[in-house]
């Protein structure tokens, strides 16, 4: 190849490459770099989002940890939510995928039925569940009535509200299920045959064949699940408004109300940083932990 | 091309197909109960949407409507100016879908097919940015857009779509890596430029993943709640998500109207899902090296 021509093309390629990725570079600057830099500063200010931010040092964090009556409760509620929600939807989704991976009659119908709720717009499902939980005429209490149980104040009972929100979320378990299912289907059939020839059954097959092979998917779902659950917002905003008595006050919802409700922009951003650090912490722990049991296929070669 | 994505036709029937009959009966039972739990809430909404004003509040549970009140759909949609917001949502979603898919395709092509310094660094930056919690960006970006005079307009919901979507870019790159570069080279020999190679050759070959992106993008935009909630003030600019969430609190006495409106809000996504299902499963499968059947 002619070296002058190739150099010319390379120089042109440089421009061309950057032209192609320029939308994402711009997006990265506006939605990642700029906010990251600015929010460090904003977190240290008293700011209503309208007038000039006023530098106050660590006052926001101080108030957050020592004065704010809701912060610690919101933190606790958020942890409960993540701790119940993530394992329930992961394990539930996996079990469901294993059930739906069998060749049963009508299996396509079942798969569609379980996937259907995840197709619906989130606000539609949340408002729908709000009515399902309606104390007098809602579906949930009517089902309880069928079993002879007393009606329950699903969303306005402090002890039940968070649980009810989580249950409503599990209606969309099909989203995780479909990803596990595609993972299960990519497992080569001969591995199952080999293990059954070795006399492996049930749990042993799952433990030694299925689990190691879907571990990467499980791990990815775990990370995404944790990140997503920590950031849940609409569930609470639409169904409970954080109540009763802050029983469903997820941290993300508190941030939203502090920023856009009380116009405490600086304070809200300080809270965002706490949330960010928590998410980072759990993501890193999960990564560390995963090294012990996730083995990618390529590692062995 | 097609065979590459399809899963093996024979599925696992368990280690021992003949012995496990009782187990299969238990499986069927669990699936049936689960299916009822999944589908019943939806059927319940449909029945409520068809019930008369007084039938909703009968104390003895009445599972099926005695008469069908289709006029609920008309009344429900009239009272909240539903169709205005439906149009808003459609307009925003279509523009935002075009933006996300087109920009992600262009960026994906640049990152996977063109060679230039800093390529790997940008790639990891874009992918890494997906890990950043949404709220970190939200407040500064909200302030920025307000300064630009975009508060109470649709611009914050549409313009960012044209700046690439890291997840879609990644999806497209993954798919492009399964298409041999010899296709590009052959086209280049025939005098095709990058634009032609991308849109005339690679995009048509990537149809499953492009359709997947379209479905995801439309879904995401139709679902979008937080952004319209914080940016849009005037009711006639609202999207359906904001409108329905707001009316769910006010309409406690007229569920039948609300449910009727809610059902129409669900409809576009249901239609897209049922028509795009085949492509969608293939496109999703391409990430996973095996398609779903």
TrEMBL record, chain A:
PROSITE patterns hit by this protein: ABC_TM1 (PS50928)
A single cellular component GO annotation: plasma membrane
InterPro entries, sorted: ABC_transporter_permease (IPR051393), MetI-like (IPR000515), MetI-like_sf (IPR035906)
Cellular localization per UniProt: Cell membrane
Gene Ontology annotations of biological process type: transmembrane transport
Start and end residues of each ABC transmembrane type-1 domain: 75-286
Listed transmembrane segments: 21-44, 79-100, 112-132, 160-184, 205-230, 264-287
Record protein name field: Sugar ABC transporter permease
């Amino acid at each position: 190849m002619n070296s002058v021509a190739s150099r010319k093309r390379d120089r042109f390629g440089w421009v061309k490459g950057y032209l192609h990725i320029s939308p994402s570079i711009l997006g990265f600057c506006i939605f990642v770099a700029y906010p990251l830099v600015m929010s460090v500063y904003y977190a240290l200010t008293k700011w209503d989002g309208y007038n000039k931010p006023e530098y106050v040092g660590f006052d926001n964090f101080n108030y957050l940890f020592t004065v704010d009556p809701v912060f610690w409760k919101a933190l606790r509620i958020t942890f409960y939510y993540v701790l119940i929600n993530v394992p329930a939807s992961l394990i539930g989704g996996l079990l469901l995928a294993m059930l739906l991976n069998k060749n049963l009659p009508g299996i396509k119908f079942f798969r569609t039925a379980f996937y259907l709720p995840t197709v619906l717009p989130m606000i539609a499902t949340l408002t729908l569940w709000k009515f399902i939980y309606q104390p007098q005429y809602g579906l949930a209490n009517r089902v309880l009535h069928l079993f002879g149980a007393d009606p329950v104040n699903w969303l306005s009972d402090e002890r039940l509200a968070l649980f009810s929100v989580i249950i409503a979320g599990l209606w969309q378990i099909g989203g995780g299920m479909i990803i596990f299912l595609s993972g299960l289907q990519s497992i080569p059939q001969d591995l199952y045959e080999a293990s059954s020839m070795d006399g492996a059954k049930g749990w042993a097959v799952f433990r030694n064949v299925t689990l190691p092979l879907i571990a990467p998917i499980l791990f990815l779902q775990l990370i995404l699940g944790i990140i997503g659950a920590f950031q849940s917002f609409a569930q609470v905003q639409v169904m409970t408004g954080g109540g009763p008595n802050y029983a469903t006050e997820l941290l993300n919802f508190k941030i939203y109300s502090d920023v856009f409700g009380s116009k405490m922009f600086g304070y809200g951003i300080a809270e965002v940083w706490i949330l960010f650090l928590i998410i980072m912490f759990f993501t890193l722990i999960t990564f560390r932990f995963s090294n012990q049991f996730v083995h990618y296929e390529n590692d062995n070669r | 091309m097609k065979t590459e994505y399809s899963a093996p036709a024979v599925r696992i029937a368990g280690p021992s197909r003949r012995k496990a009959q009782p187990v299969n009966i238990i499986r069927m039972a669990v699936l049936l109960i689960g299916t009822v739990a999944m589908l019943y809430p939806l059927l319940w909404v449909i029945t409520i949407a068809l019930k008369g004003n007084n039938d909703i509040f009968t104390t003895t549970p009445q599972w099926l409507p005695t008469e069908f009140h289709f006029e609920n759909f008309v009344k429900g949609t009239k009272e909240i100016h539903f169709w205005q917001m439906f149009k808003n949502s459609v307009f925003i979603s279509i523009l935002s879908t075009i933006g996300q898919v087109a920009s992600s395709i262009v960026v994906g092509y640049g990152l996977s097919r063109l060679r230039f310094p800093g390529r790997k660094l940008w790639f990891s930056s874009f992918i890494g940015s997906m890990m950043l919690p949404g709220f970190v960006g939200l407040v500064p970006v909200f302030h920025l857009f307000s300064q630009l005079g975009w508060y109470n307009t649709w611009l914050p919901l549409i313009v960012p779509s044209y700046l690439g979507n890291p997840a879609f870019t990644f999806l497209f790159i993954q798919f492009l890596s399964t298409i041999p570069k010899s296709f590009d080279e052959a086209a280049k020999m025939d005098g095709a430029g990058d634009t032609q190679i991308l849109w005339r050759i690679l995009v048509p070959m990537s149809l499953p993943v492009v359709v997947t992106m379209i479905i995801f993008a439309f879904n995401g935009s139709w679902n979008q709640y937080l952004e319209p909630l914080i940016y849009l003030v005037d009711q006639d600019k609202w999207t359906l998500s904001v409108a329905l969430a707001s009316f769910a609190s006010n309409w406690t006495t007229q569920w039948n109207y609300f449910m009727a409106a809610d059902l129409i809000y669900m409809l576009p996504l249901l239609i897209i899902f049922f028509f795009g299902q085949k492509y969608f499963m293939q496109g999703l499968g391409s990430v996973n090296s095996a398609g779903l059947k």
